[in-house]
Every structure is written in C-alpha cells, then in structure tokens.
TrEMBL record:
This is ADP-ribosylglycohydrolase. Transmembrane segments: none annotated. Keywords: Hydrolase, Magnesium, Metal-binding. Binds 2 magnesium ions per subunit. Pfam families: ADP_ribosyl_GH. It comes from the Bacteria.
Length: 338
C-alpha cells in the first residue's frame, strides 16, 4: 500500500509535467506543434505544474496534522492544510527560501510560478477561508480536485471523502469545486488503501458524491459509460474541457478506465493531455489514479529520471502511505514547518 501511495503522487506529477507545456493549447495547436500524435513524452526537464505543487503541500499539511495528533497534540487536518496552502502562496510571491526554512518551504524549485489558478491565489489571500457550509466564492474550477489525492490516505474512505471536500472548499466554494475533490480523494482511497478494482471504485465514488453534487456524479457515470465503448480523443470532448472540477475528474477517470492496465500508463497519460482542455490537470488526475491502482511498477523509469523533485514527491508519498497503515516514518519532521 505504501508503494501505491508513492505511485499515486509520482503518477500525478508525471501527468502534470506531461501536460504543462500544452496547458492552454487546443488539440489542433498541439498537433501542429508536436506532430499528428501530439505530446508523447515529457520534456527533457519535466517541470512540475501548480497541480503537483499544491498536491505536495496538501500532503505536508495532512502529515503535520497526523504527526501533531500522534505526538499528543490536537488533530486538526483542515487547519493544518489551510496553513500549508498559505505556505504554498508564499512560494508564489517570493523568489527563494528564507533562512531557516523547513519542509517544502526549503525546496528552491518550488519557488516557481507555474500558471497557478487565480481562484486559489485570490482565496488564499483572504483572512477567512471557505468551508462547504460557508463558501468563500462560487467557483467550481478544477484547482481543488487536482490536489486532492493526498486526502485519499486518511484512515477510512468516508474520512478521505470528507477531508477532500473540506480541503477543496478552502478555496473553491461551489459544490462542483469541492465535492469533485472529495470524490477524487475517495477514489484514491478505494484504489490504494482498499485495493479495489477501478470500475468498482469509480462507481462507489460516484454514488457517494451524488449526495452533495449531482453534476460530479453524472460526469463520473458518463466517463464510465464512454470508457466501455471505445478509446477516442473525441469522447473526451463529450465530457468537457476540464476547466471545472466535475469535467476534469471525469476526463481523468475516462482515460484511466479506457487504458487501465499497468503497461498502458504512458498511453493513458498521452490520451489525457492530447485534447482541447486543461491538459495538465486531467493528466495529473489520470496519473494519480493509475499510480494508486498499480503502484510504482507502472511508472516509466525514463520519465521519472526527468522529473523535477522526484525524491521529494516520493518522500511525501511514502509518508502518507506509512501514516495510513501504521508503519514507522520520521513524523517529527512535520511538526515544525515554515
């Protein structure tokens, strides 16, 4: 299970890095630039997008809460993750770590602006962040769902879903913004922690999110239906472009369901980026899903060798997995962050 947690975060990062160069390009532009097959592999320097940056800070925030609770303090995962997102915001405003920085704040490579979502930037500058019951705005953008995988390593699927929703609502106020994040977290838990098969996990996540957001539940059902028919880029367009949470989740799920085998990881990620939409987010979702399903054995080694901060991503993934199954890890490094 720890290996699946590592695979989940590294898979998300590989998808993100594959899609970053074409994030704002339509399919015609992608084919003009890269040829008839579109993007087929990450660039020689596979840089992380904002999706992976915020996924890492989500993981660090959750682990801070876990370590605090494990060492006699109070368990406050939402507050801890909100503080982590504030730290991420600093990396978007400053050029390098300050003296004595710890945790992710000490990583120079994270002080890079990779086209972060305006909704998250604006929300995190406000004094009070949102909740599902008291939303901060009316956004259902995809910026919450693409960072939600880390919440999948909570002890139960219901807790994963709830935390995914709460983490999402910190910045995205519409149900489509935060409930899609909850569905993503639940899906990752079902795959990585419970070892469910992908079609059954998608059905269960869709059934759970239906209580809060019918749009996300319908989008997941549509993705499952299309995946049973065929593998076509045109089917992605029927699901949307991925700029909002339900569409991004549906596209990522469709690509994973259409090409679900361990040896199809490359092709699934290629399918998830070569369309007219939010390519880095949809590919990050596909990569996280297949990494959670198959573990690190599915990940292309030649792609991993190009990946920025691969060692940091692996460490956060390992510690999330270890926290979930009760394996020992250096939890004290998460107690003092900043």
């Amino acid at each position: 299970m720890v290996d699946r947690a590592v695979g989940c975060l590294l898979g998300a990062a590989l998808g993100d890095s594959l899609g970053v160069p074409v994030e704002f390009a339509d399919h015609g532009e992608i084919r003009t630039r890269y040829g008839p097959d579109g993007v087929v592999e990450p660039p020689p320097q596979a840089l992380l997008g904002d999706a992976t940056q915020m996924l890492l800070f989500t993981g660090e925030g959750y682990l801070h809460a876990w370590a605090t609770g494990n060492n006699g303090g109070k368990w406050r995962p939402v507050e801890a993750t909100a503080a982590a997102y504030r730290r991420w915001l600093i990396t978007q405003q400053e050029s390098k770590p300050h003296y004595g920085a710890t945790g992710l704040m000490a990583e120079h490579e994270l002080y890079a602006n990779r086209s972060p979502g305006l909704t998250s930037l604006r929300a995190l500058q406000e004094e009070i962040l949102g909740t599902p019951d008291q939303p901060a705005n009316t956004s259902k953008g995809c910026g919450a769902v693409d960072r939600a995988a880390a919440a999948g390593f909570a002890p139960t699927v219901e807790m994963s879903y709830t935390l995914g929703c709460q983490f999402g609502a910190l910045t995205h106020g519409a149900p489509g913004g935060w409930a899609s994040a909850g569905a993503m977290a639940a899906l990752i838990h079902l795959l990585a922690v419970q070892g469910r098969r992908l079609p059954q996990a998608v059905d269960q996540a869709a059934g759970r999110v239906l209580r809060e957001d019918g749009e996300t539940a319908t989008a997941l059902a549509d993705a499952a239906t299309l995946a049973r028919i065929d593998v076509r880029t045109s089917y992605i367009q029927r699901l949307g472009q991925g700029w909002v949470g339900p569409e991004a989740l549906a596209i990522g799920v469709y690509c994973a369901l259409a090409l679900p085998k361990r040896d199809q990881f490359r092709d699934a990620l290629r399918l998830s980026v070569n369309h007219s939409g939010h390519s880095d987010t949809t590919a990050a979702i596909t990569g996280a899903i297949l990494g959670a399903r198959h573990g690190t054995a599915a990940l292309p080694r030649d792609w991993l060798n190009r990946l920025e901060l691969a060692d940091v991503i692996e460490r956060i993934g390992h510690d999330l997995g270890a926290s979930c199954v009760g394996e020992k890890f250096n939890d004290r490094r998460y107690l003092s962050l900043g």
